[in-house]
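Discussion board: Methods & Data

I've been asked by a reviewer to show the raw model output for two of the constructs in my manuscript, not just the figures. I'm not sure how much to include, so I'm pasting the format here to get opinions. Each protein appears as its amino acid sequence followed by a line of discrete structure tokens. Is this the kind of thing reviewers expect to see in a supplement, or should I convert it first? Here is construct A:
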Amino acid sequence: MSTPAPSRPRPRLSADPVPSRGGDTHRRRTGRPHLLALLFFAGYAALSVTKHLQLRSTGYDLGIFEQAVRAYAQLRTPVSELKGAGYNLLGDHFHPILATLAPLYRLFPTPLTLLTAQAALLALSVVPVTRLAIRTTTPRLGTAIGIAYGLSWGLQKAVAFDFHEIAFAVPLLAFCLECLALRHWRTAAAWAAPLVLVKEDLPLTVTAIGLYILLSGRRRLGTAVLAYGVLSGLLIVLVAIPAFNPDGHYDYLHTATQATGDPLTRLLLPPQKLGTLLALLAPTAFLALRSPLILLALPTLAWRFWSTNPAYWGLGYHYSAVLMPIVFLAFADALGRLNRPRLVTQAVAVSVTSSLLALPFLPLRDLAGPAWRPSPWADAARQVMAAVPDGAEIAAVNYLAPQLTSRACVYRFPQVLDTSTKPEWLLISDPARGGMPDFAWELSRLPELPSLGYRLVMERSGIQLYRLADR
């Protein structure tokens, strides 16, 4: 009787249970993700808070979002005077999820509340990424992937550039994709549902999530999520935003409908776009491409690369933060599909090494020293701003605007000079008198101020406060 040939072990999928190795392993699996999240929260919060305290935050966008959250906290519509008198931010981008910050802001009415909340939301996403990575590899390797994720350039760029609504999308996507990898379809759908309240492009991602669930065999649920994504996206872009917009339309739609030649060329060129793809996949040793979860990054990449706005194509600002959980969870899922332990270890080593090598060029490096250096203008600016009464109407330059939005009605200088609005106060920084550097076109309007009725009432180290002469 012939002996049957031994069967080859099948690769372990991410949904397969990891064999129990005792209570110590269980504690490491459950405790490490939360500890990592706590550490990254401390780092993210320290970076963004110190930037604000050293006058390196901006009215565009921290001041704008604080005005919206402040309005929600006062049970008003989310108007931002920095965008224009009476400008409802829901007519610019659709992000009603910001209202969830209102109770916290009512208790702590300061821009630091927004920055701290963003740090917490981004750090929270470390939990599902690390948890899935531990499940598909080992506690040590999974923790290493969590570290690489927390240090990823997309998250760091988001932390460094003030506050943005996409901070809510990052943990929602992370928990959703973890559930998709584990085939917890209903829970994944529940995590995906609030994404349509974060920003108007995310219904595209929800649609892709629905298609993913449908193709995975859950047809009824997948079809429902897909339809929800499509219908909510159309309703938001074609109805909701135009209804709130002062001009009655969605301002950014022209970048999607403008014809610029061959579609493939538009998506892939200039080479900056290919560089972004390389930067996204390199930290995973390109193994993220082995997981179908990576397909959920396509909607975000498609609208960014299709746009005619170059700011969307590269690595700057906050635009890639929502891609980080997708890429790293796809990486963790792909590692769970491999049956080559040595390759898994090498891939994790590449991921961690690439994140550490990039760190000197990314914002968290400032925590080693520069973030804590006092701004030469901070004390002078605070002395000048102390003369502005609470509730005053004031126009301020970009770098000083978010210092006042918690207690005053702040407009943007010099744009306000071209409107019918005439605030009582103006706050300006003049580098010619030793003030902090700012945009030259903002300072070009200074000679007009006397003729408009403004007189200089206070100055410290180039930080100037003007007031209408008849007040």
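Construct B, same format:
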Amino acid sequence: MPEASPVSFPSAFLWGAATSAYQIEGAVREDGRTPSIWDTFSHTPGKTAGGETGDIAVDHYHRYRDDVALMKELGLGAYRFSISWPRVQPTGRGPAVQRGLDFYRRLVDELLAAGIKPAVTLYHWDLPQELEDAGGWPERDTAYRFAEYAQIVGEALGDRVEQWITLNEPWCAAFLGYASGVHAPGRTDPAASLRAAHHLNLAHGLGTVALRSVMPAHNSVAISLNTSAVRPLSQQPADLAAAQKIDDLSGGIFHGPILHGAYPQTLLEATAPVTDWSHVEDGDLGLIRQPLDAICLNYYTPTVVSAADADSRVRSSGGHGESDHSPWPAADDVAFHQPPGERTEMGWSVDPTGLHQLIMRYHREAPGLPLYISENGAAYDDKPGADGTVHDPERVAYLDGHLKAVRRAITDGADVRGYYLWSLLDNFEWAYGYEKRFGAVYVDYASQERIPKSSALWYGRAARTGSLPPVESAAE
């Protein structure tokens, strides 16, 4: 039987890896940085596994040169990282702290010297604590503070960084932060979470305008959405209605105004018991709907829902952490289901078809806009073997399956231009502390030693050749 042809990607396809500032940098009190909401949250007893914090994380602030050298050695073509807002603008207002900006200038220079394309995310959940003290994302002013911050960073780095992402997963920032409370700042107010979602949308629009006012016209501005690949448990009307509700709350609430200039009517009707949406002011939707250069998608697992039984309704996060409060406002009548089959350490089902579903959905939702997979990956219980190597065949299989789904979407007509593996390094996994390892590179947290796992070597080979290696080759 002849060997199957290798799965190859277009020659210009971007092969990258991603991280975020609070998860890897450490150095939380150096060079003028002040606390973010995640510093406060992680230092609050009972909020994170083992009371762990990002105070040191994987010490990327001091080890970035070695980390860039490792990326180059692996053969990565791009690196997506986030800027720590309180490192650049400690109070969320006023002039920048140049020492904070200088770190990112050095990082960008190091990447460019290594032939690695930098991609900047402006907001990956680390709101300056002073802005939260003033009300946080439920307050309209926070969106204007974000635009000021975006202009500062755009002026500093826009001459050398071409790819920009305003917000990462605004769904998590709004609903895990302000509805279920499992993420910083840990508030549990459904109405506030919906106001936060709108003001995050407004921040994206205002931030896009601010970036474009100070950067070269050829730079790309996008947003990273983690819209759920929602599937109804059955085709019964009640289950279809449940799927519509979760689809609106995970996706429509963001891409509705961002791409189409309006919130879905079904969303407004479903959330009417929680809010009257009077926080949406005249002109907001026009400010939010700025022309984009790309859409970035984060995907890990599909979401399966049904209508909940009237006598057995339970609050559920849909796999987003345990809480007595739901991250889904006005959706207590929706039940979440765990599909059968393989799961990651997060308890998430492994299903590449959900990634294909999501890509094709946005291919239709935003025709003509390039797409990037800005996060995709899996947590497994990785440990070094007796010989010191870290073999993670489950992650290799996960990446292989999901990259094949991306290639299938390209064949089906979607303009997918790049893929960022989550994550480059094992790191601080938010409320899970250090117990969940998403990295392609193993980190010994005590010594800070980096050990590329077999998945990193496999993915690096794919990045260098543009074709997926045999899964078995990861063991070599």
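Answer (T.O., handling editor elsewhere):
This is acceptable in a supplement if you add a one-line summary per construct. For B, something like: The chain has a mean pLDDT of 96.
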